Every structure is written in structure tokens, then in C-alpha cells.
Amino acid sequence: LIKNSEGTKRRRRRGRKGAVSSAEASQIPAHEKTIRLHSLWVHFNDLWKHSNAIFSHEPQSWKHFYGPEAISESLNLREKDNQIQLHFPPQVFRQANLDAFEKIVDCIRLKVSNFFPTRKPSCLELYGGVGTIGLNIADLLSSLVSSDENPYNKQCFLLSSASAKLADAVEVSYEAKKATDMVHTGCFSKSDVVVVDPPRKGLEDSVLQALITFSEPKLLVYVSCGFQAFQRDSSRLLESQKWELNHAEGHIVFPGSDAIETVAFFTRKKIIVS
């Protein structure tokens, strides 16, 4: 992780994009010439086949040389006093715009608390990363099982949970497993709420089938960065006649772009017996 504490202003000459003359360079303050590092890691991905994976999960692919091993950040949420310190080493995924993502988490907190006004529900989080969503709604839950296939996420989750002393109030655990593997753990049948934040490709078929098959979850929170995949998955859920769409909204996480982050809430369809 490399962090420039102060950005160097680019000084341009007309006709030479990005070029800086020696005279201009001599006028740049010394503090703007200095790059201060938060920390330094070296990564080597020894791929043996073509893949779009930039980083390797293998421990031998990473070497920490300098500074803290992770960046520690928290979300500034409404109506939540106890901030959760999230840990982001370079091996894990971090939302690029946490300030904008706060609004999504605020929305989820409001919906969960309104849907379960008299009791705290149990929750299963798939594609959970370091627990950015799950840990920040844990105070509304009776239990939280978070999961992700990246093995480096588990330690980050446990550090955040321990520092916030969540175990004193809620049962929390983490499974370093793929969402498709979580289908076979029995967690679906023990959860009132399921939170999914899949990659752009959306939910795998077995995860969708589990959501349709298990009747125990009453609320599905779907956070999507790929709208076409979300359309496909939501159509499948609605066509099953087991879920209905309660609410959906779009969030501009990258201002100036056409990228929309969707957060949708599906509720279990009530069976009417004639």
C-alpha cells in the first residue's frame, strides 16, 4: 500500500502535455517532491495460465517491507455511535469510495431495523470481504456469519470484531469459503437475513437456487455493482414466486461516470392458503 500524503500538482506547458521544464521544476516546493509512504509491500503473481486475477492469494506472493501491514478506516454512519475499525491490507478488496458506500450501509441498517422491529434477526453475509457491511449492521443482529473466498479477509474481520468487542453483544463468526460452498453448510436454514454483495458477474446458480429453496430467510439484501447481472438474478428470484421486490435504489459511487451501485431488498413472499 502506497499513500501519498500530499498530491504533487502537475505543471504543464502548452503543447507538451504533462511536461515540466527544468525552470518550473526548480520552483516546486521540496515537500511536493517528497513521496511519503504509508507502507510498502511487494507482490509477485506467478501465473501459469491466463487469468484476470491481478493478485495471488498465495502467502509466498507477498512480502511486507515497511510501515503498518494494513490501513485502518471506519464508516461515518447515521445513528451509530460505535464505529467499526475496518482493516485493509493490500490482499483484500476495499470499496474505492467508502464515503459514498456509507449511504448504502445506512440504507441497509434502516431497512433491517424496520423489517425486524421487535427482535434481532440472524444474518448470513456472502461475498462479505472484510465485513464492511456485516460488521456495521452487527448491532442490529442476534448473530452474524460472514464469508468470503479470499483467505486474507478472515483475520481482518476478526480484528475488527475484537476491537469493537462485538462478541459481548452478538454471536459473530467468519467462514473463509466461496458462496457456492456456503450453500452446503446449513447457514441458509439458520438465517433470517441474507446479505449478498457479489462481484460484477452476479450470483452463482447454486446460490440463487439456495435462496429460492430455503424458506427460512425472510429478507434478502442484494448490493450489486453489475446492473445486467442484477437484472438477471432479480428476474430469477421474482419468477420463482418465492420472493418479491420490496425496495431498490441506485447510488452513484463514482461521480462523473455511468457506474451505478444498486441496493435492493427482497422479502419472502407470503403463501396464501385458500
Key structural traits:
single chain, 274 residues, alpha/beta, seven-stranded mixed beta sheet, two-stranded antiparallel ribbon, 8 helices, disordered N terminus
Give the topology, please.
Layout: H1 22-27, H2 30-33, E1 40-43, E2 62-66, E3 71-73, E4 86-88, H3 98-115, E5 122-126, H4 134-137, E6 143-147, H5 153-163, E7 171-175, H6 179-182, E8 193-196, H7 205-213, E9 219-224, H8 227-239, E10 243-251, E11 261-268
Parallel strand pairs: 5-6, 5-8, 6-7, 8-9
Antiparallel strand pairs: 1-2, 3-4, 9-11, 10-11
Q: Bin the strand percentage.
A: 15-25%
The chain-level structural class is: alpha/beta
Low-pLDDT stretches are 1-19
Categorize the overall geometry.
Answer: globular
| Integer average pLDDT | 88
> Whole-Å distance between the termini?
61 Å
Could you give the order of strands across the largest sheet? 7-6-5-8-9-11-10
Using the CA coordinates, give the radius of gyration.
22 Å
Structure annotation, total helices: 8
Helix content: 25-40%
Summarize the helix and strand pattern as letters.
HHEEEEHEHEHEHEHEHEE
How many strands?
Answer: 11
For the largest beta-sheet, the strand count, sense and barrel status come to: 7 strands, mixed
